């Protein structure tokens, strides 16, 4: 038969394009994605949207319940809560994205190399992971903060540098079981280099658990940031993050419950959206498309 | 009245993807002391049919649409779960395919064996133990007292299957359902197990349903045969009449697909030696209870392979045949010896130094479900070797890939699909396409048809013969199936426990084997159909 090829099949769909097509069909994932985009846009554009400043106090007003002037009320210093939540979102989202990316890049690379190389390389790399695991996290943070001074980006890096450990273990165990399969042997017998095999054949097949764990890492990273800030090592008032707003809200939760409820809500909605998007991504990237 | 009477049984599966008819109007009956063989390819419904009788089909998604099934007068399809449980392992027992996974690894063999006695017969442990030991002896296990207290991992596959049979028989069932009981076993072991089942059947007046994809095995053991295809009964009859005078088109096709006879094409071996192997040895380090030990998988193997030749390599599991194949390609580095390929020593080359040689020697794997990356389209899988070895340019890549599809007999339209969208046979074609993409001179095929149904197997064998001719390939064909090897190969080597014990031209070896082991192997594999 002499038909030209492009008539016969749809051309040039890569794994990612296919995934995108599948993702768009998943309503929950799309809703999650849109929610995240809206929240991010609001946080970025808040200086232009809000008539208030995050540090502008109104001590006469004090803590006030939601009203037409202050949609989500004000905190004990009379600062507009909505504005503070949106400014806080900038820090929290940034921490979430940067620290998780750091964890993702280091963890996946480290785990894949250890799992694929096996033997002594693996043993050495994983003992290193064990040692870092065993270091008390807070001492590690305090040490770094003392040496390098308090710095927002350093904070992100520090958190990322702790969170990659579990990622590395997950990827390593995935790779270890994948490399037993014949398609890896086939790749070796084709003459592919180890790095190409890891990049093209192993990591794409380990991506499901990685995505799931990533969506779990983002919230834990946001909470870590709150904890560090609470200890006075992270961001300082009058700056805010969702974590620090929640920590403040807890102190006054009996008198002014909205100070806890609204920051908590912002965090929960974001995490929900992330989870739906993560689930959708995992399914979309599974070419078998099996959902049951 | 027959012991088991099944009539007009229809079963369907209701899933979100729609309704699938798994069993469509199947009827059969089985007399006391008889053996019914149910034959069919994968997906023909032969297992579903028997499992449904014992209520072992999950419902939903499964649903019994119509039909009746009576076992010794009891209505199986309208029995409660409790009534069925009284039957299972008691009046009706089962043996499964994989003896490696159907025993609980954490329980001693004796404990597992006496379970049915304790549940169904309310026996006390001492009597049960006595009975179990007697039965272990009956199924041919040496030193049954000791075996009683062993764990499953201490036994080989054949021994485990014996234990499974003893376990199935302990409650003295009237009906034994054996689902592919010898498929996972070596041929010599298979023969012993078949003989054992037959002996026990005669001695105990047992009825047996023997489910298998292997017509040869069924011809050996069954009185009656039922052929199934896509959930339907194709043909039913006594073994003799069905195999001698098959009526249905499908049965004839199945019988014709069994490889038999010698190689249909001429021997293409030339005088030029392509591969010369001397004293090749591959050892593995093993750790047993903290002590380091060495396993010699391939032990001082020497042979030559002529350009254009197809050399068969047979042996049972653990004989080192796969390790040898991989050692030749340096996928498992050999410990010592020499492999000279086209004048160049390969032993001692590292993966990087091997790269230019990889282009010239390729491998086809056994399991078409594991040998393709599930996240790569067929296009990408075939394009990878072409680009890696610079065989084609980006511009001509597409044409090149499509030609490969033609070569292995796949429709061009499928090229952007993922492996899971293909059947086992089609996947094996893709894997073959990937192996010949680099235009290799030498291909190692490691059991490439063992995981396939018999009709598909035939097609793949034809394809391989074709490709060998078209592309001037030299091939090492590894298999446990002697009939397949005879059909395909010019010469055969036999391996046992890492050693090469015999090598000869196919028909010479077939007709006058010199080594005792080769004789055993040949006699085990020749069946009623051979």
Overview of this protein structure:
The complex is a heterodimer of chains A (292) and B (530). Chain A is an all-alpha fold. Chain A has a domain at 84-284: MetI-like (MetI-like fold), CATH 1.10.3720. Helix content of chain A is 72%, strand content 0%. Chain A is built from 12 helices and no strands. Chain A has helices at residues 5-8, 15-25, 27-49, 81-117, 119-134, 137-148, 152-178, 182-190, 194-202, 207-230, 242-251, 258-285. In chain A, α5 runs antiparallel to α7 and α10 packs across α11 (242-251). The longest helix of chain A has 37 residues, at 81-117. The radius of gyration of chain A is 23 Å and the shape is globular. Chain A starts with a helix and ends in a 7-residue tail after the last helix. Mean pLDDT of chain A is 82; it is low at 1-8. By secondary structure, chain B is an alpha/beta fold. Chain B folds into 2 domains: 4-256, 3-Layer(aba) Sandwich (Rossmann fold); 274-524, Rossmann fold. Chain B has 19 helices and 20 strands. Chain B has a 6-stranded mixed beta sheet with strand order 6-7-8-3-9-10, with helices on both faces. In chain B, strands 16-17-18-13-19-20 form a 6-stranded mixed beta sheet, sandwiched between helices. In chain B, a hairpin with a 2-residue loop joins β9 and β10 (232-238). The longest helix of chain B is centred in the middle third of the chain and has 18 residues, at 187-204. Chain B is globular and about 70 Å long. The model of chain B has no long low-confidence stretch (mean pLDDT 87).
């Amino acid at each position: 038969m002499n038909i030209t090829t492009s008539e016969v099949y749809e051309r040039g769909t890569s794994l990612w394009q296919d995934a995108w097509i599948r993702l768009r069909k998943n309503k929950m994932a799309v809703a999650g994605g849109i929610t995240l985009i809206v929240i991010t846009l609001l946080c970025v554009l808040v200086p232009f949207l809000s008539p208030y400043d995050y540090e502008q106090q109104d001590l006469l007003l004090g803590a006030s319940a939601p009203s037409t002037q202050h949609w989500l009320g004000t905190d004990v210093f009379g600062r507009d809560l909505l504005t503070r939540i949106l400014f806080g979102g900038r820090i929290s989202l940034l921490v979430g994205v940067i620290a998780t990316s750091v964890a993702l890049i280091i963890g996946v690379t480290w785990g894949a190399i250890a799992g694929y190389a096996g033997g002594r390389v693996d043993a050495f790399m994983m003992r290193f992971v064990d040692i870092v695991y065993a270091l008390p996290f807070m001492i590690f943070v305090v040490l770094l903060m003392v040496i390098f001074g308090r710095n927002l980006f350093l904070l992100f890096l520090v958190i990322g540098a702790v969170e990659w450990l579990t990622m590395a273990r997950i990827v390593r165990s995935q790779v270890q079981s994948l490399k037993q399969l014949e398609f890896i042997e086939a790749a070796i017998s084709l003459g592919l280099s180890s790095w190409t095999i890891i990049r093209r054949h192993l990591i794409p097949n380990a991506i499901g658990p990685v995505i799931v764990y990533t969506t779990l890492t983002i919230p834990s990273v946001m909470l870590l940031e709150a904890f560090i800030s609470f200890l006075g090592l992270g961001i300082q008032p009058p700056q805010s993050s969702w974590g620090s707003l929640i920590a403040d809200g807890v102190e006054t939760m009996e008198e002014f419950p909205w100070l806890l409820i609204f920051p908590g809500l912002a965090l929960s909605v974001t995490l929900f959206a992330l989870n739906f998007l993560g689930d959708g991504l995992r399914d979309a990237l599974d070419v078998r498309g099996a959902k049951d | 009245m027959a012991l088991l009477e099944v009539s007009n049984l229809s079963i369907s599966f209701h899933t979100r993807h729609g309704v699938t008819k798994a069993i469509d109007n199947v009827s059969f009956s089985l007399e006391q002391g008889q053996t019914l063989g149910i034959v069919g390819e994968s997906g023909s419904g032969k297992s579903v049919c028997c499992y449904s009788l014992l209520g072992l089909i999950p419902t939903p998604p499964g649903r019994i649409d119509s039909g009746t099934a009576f076992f010794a007068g009891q209505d199986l399809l309208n029995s409660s779960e409790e009534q069925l449980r009284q039957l299972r392992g008691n009046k009706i027992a089962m043996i499964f395919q994989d003896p490696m996974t159907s025993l609980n690894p954490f329980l001693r063999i004796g404990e597992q064996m006496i379970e049915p006695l304790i549940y169904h017969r309310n026996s006390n442990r001492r009597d049960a133990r006595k009975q179990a030991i007697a039965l272990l002896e009956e199924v041919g296990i040496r030193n049954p007292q000791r075996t009683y207290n062993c764990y499953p991992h201490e036994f080989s596959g054949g021994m485990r299957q014996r234990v499974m049979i003893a376990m199935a028989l302990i409650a003295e069932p009237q009906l034994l359902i054996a689902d592919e009981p010898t498929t996972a076993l070596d041929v010599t072991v298979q023969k012993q197990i078949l003989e054992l089942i037959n002996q026990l059947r005669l001695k105990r007046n047992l009825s047996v349903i023997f489910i298998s994809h292997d017509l040869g095995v069924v011809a050996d053991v069954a009185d009656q045969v039922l052929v199934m295809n896509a959930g339907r009964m194709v043909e039913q009859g006594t073994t003799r009449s069905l195999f001698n005078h098959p009526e249905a088109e499908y049965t004839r096709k199945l019988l014709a697909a069994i490889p038999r006879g010698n190689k249909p094409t001429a021997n293409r071996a030339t005088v030029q030696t392509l591969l010369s192997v001397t004293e090749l040895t591959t050892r593995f380090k093993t750790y047993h209870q903290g002590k380091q030990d060495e396993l010699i998988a391939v032990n001082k193997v020497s042979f030559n392979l002529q350009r254009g030749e197809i050399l068969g390599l047979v042996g049972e599991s653990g004989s080192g045949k796969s390790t040898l194949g991989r050692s030749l390609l340096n996928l498992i580095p050999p410990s010592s010896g020499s492999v000279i390929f086209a004048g160049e020593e390969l032993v001692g080359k590292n993966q990087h130094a091997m790269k230019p040689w990889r282009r010239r020697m390729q491998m086809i794997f056994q399991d078409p479900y594991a040998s393709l990356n599930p996240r790569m389209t067929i296009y990408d899988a075939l394009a990878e070797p072409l680009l890696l070895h610079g065989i084609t340019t980006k511009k001509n890549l597409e044409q090149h890939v499509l030609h490969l599809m033609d070569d292995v007999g796949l429709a061009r339209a499928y090229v952007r699909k993922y492996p899971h969208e293909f059947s086992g046979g089609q996947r094996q074609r893709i894997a073959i396409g990937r192996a010949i993409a680099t235009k290799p001179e030498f291909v190692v095929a490691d059991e490439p048809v063992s995981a396939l149904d018999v009709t598909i197997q035939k097609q793949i064998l034809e394809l391989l013969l074709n490709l060998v001719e078209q592309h001037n390939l030299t091939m090492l064909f590894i298999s446990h199936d002697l009939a397949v090897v005879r059909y395909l190969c010019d010469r055969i080597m036999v391996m046992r426990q890492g050693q090469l014990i015999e090598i000869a031209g196919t028909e010479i070896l077939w007709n006058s084997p010199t080594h005792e082991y080769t004789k055993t192997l040949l006699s085990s594999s020749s069946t009623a159909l051979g």
